[in-house]
Design goal:
single chain, two-stranded antiparallel sheet, 4% strand
Length: 96
């Protein structure tokens, strides 16, 4: 499928891309080649291929969420550079 120069300019305008005349010529050839390839792919018979959302067969890659040993408050704050009243103290992000 060969795109016209006007169609390439229209696509560029929709994409908010400023293209020079030379770039329009290059993009016309490249976009036409992409559309030709897509047309070729549309000719492939995939009627016996089931719709596939995931190709590896994995159902989940995460481990089960199991409660394990927890840190005490003292252990959690042991390496804190600044703490106050049993909590981490951090710099203010917003001005009051």
């Amino acid at each position: 499928m060969s795109l016209s120069e006007a169609e390439v300019r229209h696509v560029a305008r929709l994409a908010r891309i400023a293209l020079s005349d030379e770039e329009i010529t290059v993009m016309r050839a490249q976009l036409s080649a992409i559309l030709d390839y897509i047309a070729m792919l549309q000719e492939v018979d995939v009627s016996d291929v089931p719709p596939t959302a995931q190709v590896t067969g994995l159902t989940t890659v995460w481990r089960p969420d199991v409660v394990g040993e927890m840190l005490t408050q003292a252990q959690a704050l042991a390496n804190a550079p600044d703490q106050q009243d049993g909590m981490f103290r951090v710099r203010a992000v917003f001005d009051e």
